[in-house]
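so my prof wants the structure for this chain in the tokens format not the other one, which i didnt know existed until like an hour ago. anyway here's the sequence
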Amino acid sequence: MENKHPLLLEIEKGESKNLEFKVQLPTSKEWVKSIISFANSAGGKLVIGVSDNRTLIGLQHFDLFELMDKISSTMHELVAPTLLPNIYIENINGIELLVIEVQRGALLPYYLKSKGKELGCYQRIGATNRVVSQAQVIELERQRNHISFDSLINYEVDLSTLDLTPLQQRFAAHGKPLTPEKLLSLKLVKNDNNTLYPTHGLLILLGFYEHVEIKCSRFKGNTMSIFLDKKEYTGDLFQQIENAELFIKNHLHLRAEVLGLQRTDTFEIPFPAIREALLNAVMHRDYSNFGRDIKIGIYDDIVNIVSPGGLPHGLTMHDALKGRSEIRNTVIARVFKELDLVEQWGSGIQRIKEYCTKANTGLPVFSESGDFIDWEFPRKTHQSNEVLAINDGISDGINDGINDGINDGINDGINDGINHQTAIPKNIQPLLTCIKQAPSLSTKVFAKKLDLGTATVERHIKWLKDHNVIKRIGSKKDGYWQVLNNEK
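here's what i got, hopefully its the right format
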């Protein structure tokens, strides 16, 4: 089989955090925002000569060398600090494409000179370029200087007012007394002008901030329409983790195995894998954004763990899956390592997959959705909503139709079940409306229009397909969604 060009393989996957297409170089200089976004994020490529539907058009009618000079001069004129992308020509099956490639920059943040750092700074979120907030500009400046948010002093909090007992007890349980010297060496406190101040890391570990929280929910079915259980856990991070683990365990099925005289109960999803994902979410989330928290959703078909903040410091999904590690929260990570909550840096994703492979439960899906990290663990012991709906309807119909005959009751039940299964939950209705208006749009475009994560849109599409509300006509690349006539 003929090997495809590496760039063609990237193009066939579509636009992403690291890739964008243009048929030709826009005259509006909008393309410069993409280069700035790549430089402030994980690097990337802007490929000129490719249409939105991933068709290679080429640039046969352009003087490519003149175009390359124009790009270089435009970058020098519009962007600060100086950014030098790699500009080159790729020939794929006789079609010439122009590639503007930039690595993650060393002089963060990069911005449009005309708008200044406050208004002209952009980052790559998913396949879009977004203006960076003032808080994010500050975070980029910290990254340039290799300073983590959790290592900074909070001068507004008096150290003497803090109860360090939860942290002291955790260290004592590991035979490691939490002395003043230890607090300093772990950067939980810092000395400034002969006064000890707490760092953000210490305050995060103690659960001092409101956004340091884990929200857990058990939903009925495969959507967020109906809550069956809901808890919000605050306090020190270690107690939050334990409470979240207990919540998940309470809503997972147990499977009993008898070997000889011993009975062993195991969860439908290997719990070490879930615990590893939860620890990673707590350790690597973005704590500098005070408006977001960790969310755990348990559905009939999956267990979902979502943490705020994409992959840190220019890490790509490919890098993460290969085991490369970048530490966003150095203080918290150091404490977790000290308390044996971390085995080896960069090994978590691989261990999670190994746990699930060994247990034969299906591999979890790890993704970066917008500015969030998303884990989805498939549940092995659930019935589909469609089956449950029909069964419920049959039961109701039989009970209602006993006096009129079992056969009529069963028919009524089947109809009730089918009607029940096609009632569209409120949170999925906006997506169905979008599909009716533009059935050929991609999942990523739907996600952008609805301001939802790609994984959420994919889950909603699955629900609509499973309930025979929509069906796919044609291929994934060139097809469209057909809305059937049995939705309520």
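also thought this was worth mentioning. Residues 382-406, 413-421 have pLDDT under 50 and may be disordered.
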